[in-house]
Amino acid sequence: MGVTSFLKRLFGSAKEATNELADKAELALKQVKENATPYIEKAESFVEESIEKTKETATPLIEKANDYAHQTKEVIGEYAHEAGDMLGNIAKTVKGSATEALKETEAAIKETKESHAEMTENEGTLTNDNTSKEFGNRVEEDAD
Description:
Radius of gyration: 57 Å
Distance between the termini: 175 Å
Structural class: mainly alpha
Number of strands: 0
Mean pLDDT: 78
Shape: elongated
Region (Disordered): 110-144
Number of helices: 1
Order of helices and strands: H
Low-confidence stretches: none
Largest sheet: none
Number of domains: 1
């Protein structure tokens, strides 16, 4: 029985020590919460003030950015119209130049064909004249 009473005293004192430690931990936690509360409130106030200052500072900048965006849009719109006109003019100029070049090329081809036809006719006449002269010469040679 001595063992039983020893264990009861041992575990009983451990239980008491555990209860005491739990009480001390709760008390320490309460103190930490109480001590931290002012700092937490200061941090919250600081964050709120920072957000307000940021909004105040950012608002004019955002408005300026919007103004610049609108101005940019207007300028681009003006130049887009002018660029469209320029491209139209360029297209007309290129088309005109291409048409002119095509007409000149067609005229050159026609001229070349006519020159070639004339040359072919002249060659045919020369060839026929030479053939008749050669044939005449042969007949004369045969007659002799």
